[in-house]
Amino acid sequence: MATNTTDNGSIPCMMQEAWPEGPTYWDFLRYNRLIVLSVLGIPVCVVGIVTSGLSICMFSQDKTTPRTTRKILIVLSVVDVLYLLLSLLIFQPMTFCGPECALQLPLLAAIIVPLGNILECFRNWLNVLIGVERFLVISFSVRSKVLWTGRITNVLLVAFFGFSILVRLPVISFIVINKVRPELSDVKAWVAQMHSFTDAILVFLVPLLSLMFCSVQIARALRQSDHFRRKQPEQKIFAQTEVNEESSACNNARRIKLTRGLLMVIVTFTLFMLPLSLLQVLSLLILRQPTCVCMVTLQACSYVVALGCQINSTANFFVYILYWGKYRRMLKRMLCYQYAKQTLSLKRRAY
């Protein structure tokens, strides 16, 4: 934050009034951080942690979804749980002990902040992986069985996680330099600019464009599939052919229904990600010629970006429940089982 930036030459930026007879920029940002990251952010994170945990249970019990797809969805849900938990540990100390608190507390600086950044990048690329997988399955249904195997899925998951670590090297370097050689202000400024660039381009913009491309291609393939099914003859000639074609049609319908549901997940994620990506790209332009007002505005918007990322990790569960009846039934069974288990435990304690 450009604390020393001034607009009137004598008063530091953070000590200037946000408006006449109003709070200083420092207090303005503190109030925004409290409202966005604590009042709104804590409930979002708590709900997201619980619902993502339920998603893991549902995908583990689901036997109709292809194994490769379930594996990606389970990993995505695990990442959502960890990311939301780390978001609480990162942003709440910032709210209650200052914005530099994350760099002053050893555990936060050494582990939680870098890991939270890595998981954010990994989560974005996992959604891209889901989009690519569904695009291949719906567009090249025969070839995808050979090209997209469990081994390939494992390799891609490891590769994307390694790529996420590589992309987040600037923020890791910044934390290390700030801890070991805090006097290297020029180096820290250069590393911070590198972090802003990789954050805007490789964490947000490229995944966003990839998701938009996959969404368009999947929607087009689904439309072609619907058009093809309407042209199919309603009457069959041979009884054996009827059985085989009914089985094939059932598998095809299940695959299309799964693709439609995951398309909704991708589109929801993309819609939340769009303003975040635009803001990240805009920050690159603002940082070239920073002014006090622009930097304060950018900092305030960064809190909204953080909240949007948390909402993105929370929204998937609700898409699953609203679209798929089987997941609603699974959720109902799990909740009824837990209720019955607790009731039985209370009865045993009473006796």
Automatic annotation (TrEMBL):
UniProt xrefs under InterPro entries: GPCR-Ligand_Int, GPCR_Rhodpsn, GPCR_Rhodpsn_7TM
GO terms under cellular component: membrane
Record keywords, A-Z: Membrane, Transmembrane, Transmembrane helix
Transmembrane parts of this sequence: 34-60, 72-91, 103-122, 155-177, 197-222, 262-283, 303-324
One MF term in the entry's GO annotations: G protein-coupled receptor activity
Main subcellular location: membrane
Domain annotation G-protein coupled receptors family 1 profile: ranges: 51-320
Entries under Pfam families matching the protein: 7tm_1
Localization terms from the record: Membrane
Name used for this protein in its record: G-protein coupled receptors family 1 profile domain-containing protein
Organism expressing this protein natively: Dibothriocephalus latus (Fish tapeworm)
